[in-house]
Amino acid sequence: MIAKRAEEIPPFLVMDVLERAHALERQGIRVIHLEVGEPDFDVPQSVRDAACRAIQEGHTHYTHSLGDLALREAICRHYARTYGAQVSPDQVVVTAGTSPAMLLVFAALLDPGDEVILSDPGYACYRSFIRFVDGAPVAIPVYEEEGFQYRPEEIAARVTSRTKAVLVNSPSNPTGNLLSEERMRALADLAPIVVSDEIYHGLVYEGQEHSILEFTDRAFVLNGFSKLYAMTGLRLGYLIAPREFIRPIQKIQQNLFICANSAVQIAGIAALEETAADVARMKRIYDERRRYMIGRLRELGFGITVAPTGAFYVFANARRLSTDSYKLAFDILERAHVGVTPGIDFGQNGEGYLRFSYANSLENIVEGLDRLEGYLAVL
Ligand SMILES: Cc1ncc(COP(=O)(O)O)c(C=O)c1O
User: Fold this and answer.
1) Ligand 1 binding pocket, CB closer than 6 Å
2) Cβ neighbours of 161 (radius 10 Å)
């Protein structure tokens, strides 16, 4: 009775690790969580206040299906201020998180069999979204030695008449690395369309991230409030699309979701315009943790050829320990009580790696890596 698409969608393996960690916690064991990709910070006060005020003031009804106009205008100001990109509010669609924005973009872009080029390793759910609308993900390996950056010439070689888009995620989950300006420009020139997931923008500690809109307007931007503003549970995101796609996307939004949460959309304006100090503080703390984690993991013998400079992840080569990252992650969880994400979650080319998240306190990171050192000592 169960549909093929539901049978075939793979689980998100990090959730398997998290669920086992929670089972251990129910037995009274203290687990250090370095697996989750969720900020440990609270939502900035100004955002909380704005959300509460919005509910009190009656922002509890449906909004325009594209999203509250004041928020879409604030998003346009954000893109103009940050990247010098001129976006009109009628090119923006507000969604309940970046994930629904991804579904809308791929649903509007892909006919059955249409291909999307993406990096391996890369965010696990991209493949699932593409397959869900009967598209075909085409995985291109990216290598540790090059900071897991795309090689434009390899992409050029894989572009066919079925290729609809190339997906970029810089800074990237799981690698924490950025795509260089030159390579991004080259991609923008050779791809029919670029889908750029900019959800980790703002969380860059060295170097400079670039929006795809600096290079081309044949692009979709995916972005959201979960990471930079620590708003995961409030569920707010958006997409920016070429004008001709807006009406088709709007129709899908109206049918599938109607609109995003109205009070949270008001809070999104506060996030964009009133949180500079909060963001600077979170960034400073992430950076301190990042430096510690990279140094300590290298001391423990993990391979990190190019130090990650964005997001809140370190993707460490653990092949000298095991080539079965799923087994290794569970062994570390069972014996050291430290949660880490198996690299295989992010594609075949991620096998043999572990993803460590520093979205946890420095104190917990120190303890987690102390435990890992103890684990390695008795292997
Ligand atoms: C690369 C990437 N894109 C999108 C998402 C989804 O974020 P949201 O909470 O906005 O749906 C995540 C969440 O981990 C992510 O890592």
Assistant:
1) 37, 97-99, 123, 169, 173, 197, 199, 224, 226, 232, 237
2) 6
